[in-house]
């Protein structure tokens, strides 16, 4: 943190800021989610302060020069640093077990920065095929325009990752569980394949969050987040984060983000700080609720995918990597889009919404919403069928969610 030292006596500072990494890194993640990164001002406020400021004033011209030269700690401009944003960055880094983290304005800003900051024309990247629609647009459409070739593989197939490596392969990129098919990538195996070939692995960990799964423990190099999802957790703000080593963040990522400006607003950072305080409670309860709902749906629809169900094709691997199943369930109906849309329209409690990670239960039809921008072939290859629906299970009483599905499924003949 560069934000320490806002007044107070020397003896009081430690108590006020509490930011000794030899202590905070020893805390367990649920504690870090509440206290990690907190840097108090001289007022000693208990809840993190919100610094809505774009600039900073200096005591003298020499101080300004020293800060710009990197010789004096402190803030210069909120595109580069902000005290509230830095608190969130430190909190996420601690939870992730990463040396450092930087926050971005959205999950896609984080994914874009994590890729573009280290790829150049002539490089090659390998990506898992089941992915968030916009992530596929990055790998399939944007990067090739700048001379970066990509190979898309079935992320579940370890040999496919290995076979896709070329002399110029720079990076592996995947999410696990993947959106929306809940494919699981064997992180230990795939990260080892990458390491052996000198390739950097970037993992999109939005579904699991650091509380259910920490990719760095399995050999990943960079972890990127949409903090819009479980980290905020109440459907309020967009935010993203990139975690990695100090060297990666300082020498590779920062030049890109400071000059291109995908900066997170301090207000949104503050909202996510508040969200993280309840992340452990929410993700465990929502994962339990999701398991109950998934068990119910399994008896009523042709196919249910949920990592914590033994029927998930990669159940054992998922449960080795994750401490709970997460909040997302995908179901497949035989009646194509009409039946899928019919089910959505018959729901009373569960909202039709393409967001996830919310405390509300939300359901969407990926083929006509989140993945509509992809070609029909890419959708088919990813397993995004016309009869597929994706459900985010919230914090409501799961019995109310189950009753809602019971009625809606009857309405479409199931
Ligand atoms: C939502 C999401 C993103 C994009 O995040 P935004 O905050 O919406 O920009 C990227 N990856 C995954 C897996 C997501 O679920």
TrEMBL record:
Its EC number is 2.5.1.-. CDD domains: CGS_like. GO terms for molecular function: carbon-sulfur lyase activity; pyridoxal phosphate binding; transferase activity, transferring alkyl or aryl (other than methyl) groups. InterPro entries: Cys/Met-Metab_PyrdxlP-dep_enz, O-succ-hSer_sulfhydrylase, PyrdxlP-dep_Trfase, PyrdxlP-dep_Trfase_major, PyrdxlP-dep_Trfase_small. The keyword Amino-acid biosynthesis applies. The modification N6-(pyridoxal phosphate)lysine is found at residue 229. It comes from the Bacteria. Keywords: Amino-acid biosynthesis, Methionine biosynthesis, Pyridoxal phosphate, Transferase. SUPFAM superfamilies: PLP-dependent transferases (SSF53383). It catalyses: O-succinyl-L-homoserine + hydrogen sulfide = L-homocysteine + succinate. One of its GO terms (cellular component) is cytoplasm. Its cofactor is pyridoxal 5'-phosphate. Coiled coil: none annotated. GO terms for biological process: 'de novo' L-methionine biosynthetic process; homocysteine biosynthetic process; transsulfuration. Pathway: Amino-acid biosynthesis; L-methionine biosynthesis via de novo pathway; L-homocysteine from O-succinyl-L-homoserine: step 1/1. The keyword Chloroplast does not apply. It is an enzyme of class 2 (transferase). Catalyzes the formation of L-homocysteine from O-succinyl-L-homoserine (OSHS) and hydrogen sulfide. Homotetramer. Belongs to the trans-sulfuration enzymes family. MetZ subfamily. This is O-succinylhomoserine sulfhydrylase.
